Amino acid sequence: MSAPPLESADLARALTCHVEGEVRLGRHDRMLYATDASIYQVEPLAVVIPASTDDAVRAVRFCARHGLPILPRGGGTSLAGQCTNRAVVIDFSACCTALLQLDVPGHRCRVEAGLTIDDLNDLLRPSGLFFAPDPATARQANVGGCIGNNAAGARSILYGRTSENLLGVDVCTADGQTLRLDEGAATRDERVHALTRRVVEVVRRSERLIRERFPKTLRRNAGYALDLILDQLEQDPGDLSRINLAKLLCGSEGTLAVTLGAELLLRSIPLARGLAIVSFESLDAAIDAVVPILKLNPSAVELLDDMVISLASAQSEYRHYVTLLPHIEGHPPPAVLYVEFSAEHSCDELADRFDALRTTVGRASVSCLTEPNAQLRAWKLRKAGEPLLHGIPGRRKPISFVEDNAVPPERLAEFVRRFRAIVDAHGTRAAYWAHASVGVLHIRPLLDIADEADRVHMQQIAIEAADLARELGGVMSGEHGDGRVRGPLLERFFGPELMQAFREIKAIFDPRNLLNPGNIVEPGPPASIATRLRVCPEGRPVRVPSLDTFFRYDDQHGFDAAVETCNGAGVCRKKSGGVMCPSYQATLDERHSTRGRGNALRLAITGQFDRGTPAWDDQETLATLDLCLSCKACKSECPSNVDIARLKAEFLAQHDRASNGPSLRRRVFGNIHTLNRLAAMAPHLANTMSNSALGKLALSRALGVDPRRSLPLFTRPLHKCWRKTAADCDSTRPLVTLLADTFTSHNEPQIALDARRVLEAFGYRVSLYLGSDFGRASISQGLLPEAIADAERHVDRLSTLLENAPPRALLTLEPSCHSAIVDDWPALRLNRPRPLVQKIAEHTHDICAFLEANWNSHPIRPELKPLHRDIALHAHCHQKALDGTAATLALLSRLTSGSAFELDTGCCGMAGAFGFTRDHFELSRRIAELSLLPQVDRLPPEAVLVAPGTSCRHQLTDFSTRRAVHPASLLGSLV
Q: Is 255 in the same domain as 106?
């Protein structure tokens, strides 16, 4: 396993010198590209991240010259394993992302292969046009990948697949030639004419078999698209001018040519869209309704079953979307259909369509959404179906291997009933969701493919499902492709003659079999479906070892399940929107995505980095984790609930246990409360020293603190500012306890004093609890023994407080410290009764959430001073990840006659100690520049900027002229 990735070190060096972009040869980087969103794992030879499409061509030519296999790759979201191979991976997603040309009158554009579908449509929106294929992974799926997979999406019934929306492609062939393939290319370019002539010869020889054996379903994506070439031949005048070989590349999985760019057909954005969600009492009832609904000419009909809905209900990011579904007797429905209609001329069209739908579905509950944001939220639930399923606890997981069968919609009900019998016969169950409008069902049987018996079940179910699809006039794959999982069954499905035609097509384009070898052509026998699996890549299972962990993982059914939760769907690979993943959004680097870190952790802990035992000291894994900001966004935004922040802390703690302990820098940053307490004893001296040139030099050398950073200022500590007030003497007032964190106590005590003024104005007595950072810094730095000891001390003190003089609530001011108490303490292995820890967590509330939740029941409702300014909220990452921002925003809305709104910002980039260090400073600034700083700069001067997080406020101080206030301080100025 430790052999060099290429056949010689000289060859590896030559490749590095040959391209302008990055060449990654280390095993750690290569293994991050060994998986996609499928169940497979194959270590590549090398990874090339070209600086441009010309650079990608240079890489292809180098590989062709030296006989090296090539795997073009985009977002790596393939579900069939076609993005995994023992080849040189060329990753287009980082640098080949341009919109090259837009022809609005002609409804067409030219793009580079690495541009994602959502980013493309964001660029097109001002023109009133869009690219129609909309796979669930549109946020991370690249145009090149959509061509390779012939992606379609929910609206394919109206707009077709990528093949119906592709005008031409720019490609690099297996021998390094660059060609333009489009209609008419055969008459312009002799090389294209020669290719076209040979392809046509194969198609003509196989015409009868193509007509007989290719399925007639709208969605079909198996083998090479010989049927599309045959359709063109019927319209060709005889000179090959009408033959567009770009269509043949659709669904070819990178096996015929490397796509560099494409010319796309664009559609006009409809005047309006309306989404009806129809709830049914059973899955069968929902499926039976599909054919009648199709007569209403919808633009989409999508299915979700109870397994997906129940998983969404239990997930913090998605449970809010479940409320959009019509409930049955107060409970989420067993199955729903999303039925979308498009209005081209008048919005009245939608009302007529909704009425017709209600008549069609009879007694089924219908909810009609016309507001775009509500529709967007509902679609997020549908698109999260696949990754949500990986949150199912236990060893058996919903496995992607028969998830893409397509049959004529009128045979869909029969297919489901018979497929259910297949699954039952193998002693398991399955999840069902998908594009019901075109007869495509994404069915996921639950199996533990680390178990040999379940691997046998997997192979047999795949064969039986393929036979059933063929019998009913369908196909094994409607859109996800063949890859490793269905390729071995192609000959069984199409027969040996058509498989020979596929081989001839492959030989025309790639005679040396260099392009993604082993996919579509020569994929191996059916038994190979169950080989090269992620859970047993070398033919034997790899397991997470039994371990004495610092965190509990009961909610994820053990540490092993937590480590293996990431399924590779790549939802974290988004350039904007939400918080996850800030370091990826700034770098566009796979290793700095949540998926990259999840893979690195899994590989290191399961001993797959060379030595077969957990690699707690693996420097590459530690470097990958180093740029994780511990924002916790993945805990909520990842549909599979991958919690990288917790796994990072666990890994660092295990590293310390297996080595000589943490570094000096981690020790210092993890004990920031101790430093703050000492500095606050002589604040003027501490401020003078730390911000002097000599002080900054010393901090830079000792701890790596960047001298360009301003440092927090210390002041008179809070306990010395806290004076007895009249409210303290009024025993009739209910008591609340303010949990003072180290930042409030020693850097910004005025926030706590403002909070006290507010709480007293609302009729409370306020007691002060002087805490530390409640373990936040220790947890973030992986100093878990210290975090556990600190938490135990607080639990002892707080439990006594709750027992002797119980306050109505424990109130926090700093979101990161709040998350330590309510999210991390219950998960840490404290030597204290868990019910007691949970009781403290349940009594702990963010001050804004407490004030808003009890707005109508506070002892006093003070009259607030009028405020006629807009309020803009930048919420803390932990706040977004755990409790959400609705309560804070609702409270702020009560304070002003203007508007209160939340900025659509991600992470600020500071993340406690992260942004202070020299090796993180530039990344910290780049993250801030992604969304926070531009939105803040656009605010009107009179708007009030509110930020609950101390790190967020500090980041704004360093990089913006705007100053943010804590919400308690804003409210304190109004009482």
A: yes
The DSSP output letter for 480 is: S
CA pair distance 239, 757, nearest whole angstrom: 85
Which CATH number do you get for residue 243? 3.30.465.10
- In a domain, residue 541? The reply is no
Confidence of residue 5 (pLDDT cuts 50, 70, 90): low
Out of 72, 95, 118, pick the residue that ends a domain: 95
Residues in the chain: 975
How far is 507 from 199, CA to CA, in rounded Å? 10
Residue with tokens 């554009």: 109
- DSSP per-residue codes, 165-223: GEEEEEEE-TTS-EEEEETTHHHH-HHHHHHHHHHHHHHHHTHHHHHHHS--SS---SS
- Rounded to the nearest integer, the mean pLDDT of the chain is 94
With 80 as the cut, is the pLDDT of residue 42 above it? Answer: yes
Q: Is the dihedral of CA 229, 234, 239, 244 positive or negative?
A: negative
- What percentage of the chain has pLDDT greater than the value 90? 84
776 and 817 both lie in a single domain = yes
In which residue are the tokens 């010309």 written? 54
Cβ atoms within 10 Å, residue 420: 16
User: Regarding beta strands 88-91 and 46-49, do their DSSP bridges make them parallel or antiparallel, or are they unpaired?
Assistant: parallel
Number of CB atoms found within 10 A of residue 774's CB: 28
Gap between the Cα atoms of 918 and 184, Å rounded: 56
Q: Where are the alpha helices (DSSP H) in 411-557?
A: 412-425, 452-471, 483-486, 490-494, 496-509
Examine the domain organization and report whether 132 and 211 are in the same domain: yes
pLDDT of 33 higher than 60: yes
Instruction: Clarify whether residues 175 and 261 are in a common domain.
Output: yes
Over residues 208-224, mean pLDDT: 91
Average confidence (pLDDT) over 683-709: 94
Measured distance CA(788)–CA(778) in Å, rounded: 9
pLDDT score recorded for residue 392: 77
Could you write out the DSSP letters of every residue in 805-857? S--SEEEES-HHHHHIIIIITTTB--SS-HHHHHHHHHHEEEHHHHHHHTTTT
The Cα 75–Cα 48 span in angstroms is 14
Q: Is the pLDDT of residue 2 over 50?
A: no
**C-alpha to C-alpha distance for 809 and 822, rounded to whole angstroms:** 13
H or E segment to which residue 769 belongs: strand 765-770
What total number of domains does the chain contain?
A: 6
The token pair that represents 546 in the structure block: 């039994």
Confidence at residue 396, expressed as pLDDT on a 0 to 100 scale: 87
Rounded Cα–Cα distance for residues 664 and 675 (Å): 14
Q: 727 and 836: one domain?
A: yes
CB 228 within 8 A of CB 242: no
Same domain flag for 113 and 256:
yes
> Residue 763 pLDDT > 70, yes or no?
yes
Distance CA 608, CA 614 (A): 8
Q: What is the CATH number of the domain that holds 818?
A: 3.40.50
Contacts of 156 (CB under 8 A, 6+ apart): 133, 218, 219, 435, 437, 438, 479
Question: What average pLDDT score do residues 846-860 get?
Answer: 97
> Does residue 593 lie in a domain region?
yes
CB 279 within 8 A of CB 325: yes
What domain range includes position 312? 270-390
pLDDT of residue 451: 92
Does 740 share its domain with 815? yes
Domain C-terminal end among 241, 265, 289: 265
Claim to verify: residue 308 and residue 258 sit in the same structural domain: no
Task: Report if residue 64 sits inside a domain.
Answer: yes
Q: What is the per-residue pLDDT across 392-410, written as a single tens digit (0 to 9) for each? A: 777 888 899 998 899 999 9
For the domain that residue 319 is a member of, what is the CATH number?
3.30.70.2190
CATH code at 87?
A: 3.30.43.10
Return the pLDDT at 910: 97
Q: Looking at the domain assignment, is residue 217 inside a domain?
A: yes
If you average pLDDT over residues 480-503, what whole number do you get? 96
Is a pLDDT exceeding 70 seen at residue 713? yes
